Amino acid sequence: MSESKTRVDFNAPESLVERADVVSDLLNRSRTSLLVDALREQVDEIVTDETFRRRVKEAYYTGRIDFETLETIVGREEAMRIKLLGDSLTRDPPVPEAKSIDLPADGEFYDGELPTWTPDEDESDDDASSGR
User: From start to end residue, where is composition biased (Acidic residues) (predicted)?
Assistant: First the structure.
């Protein structure tokens, strides 16, 4: 199935058009075919550039382009990855809920007396002598 086409009319430097005509004549192809292939190659090169891809992601995340435009530029699979990442970054994290269960008291949990930490005098002397 052939993709639908859009007519494009633009102005180009005369010398460039003359060069394109010579090249298309030598390759035995139409100027349109040559220009379409050149445009496709240039766009393919741009969309694979990391700097451009960052700009596309930023444009999507800030709402300057929609998902369909994103998909057109980077392809369906990459667009879905970008969308899912954006969704995960903007959603609120779930709030943990404590179930109504009976938690053990500290004494029961720690099996008796609660441990406490106190600095050891010898440790601080060792730290000072070792340069810590």
Answer: 119-132
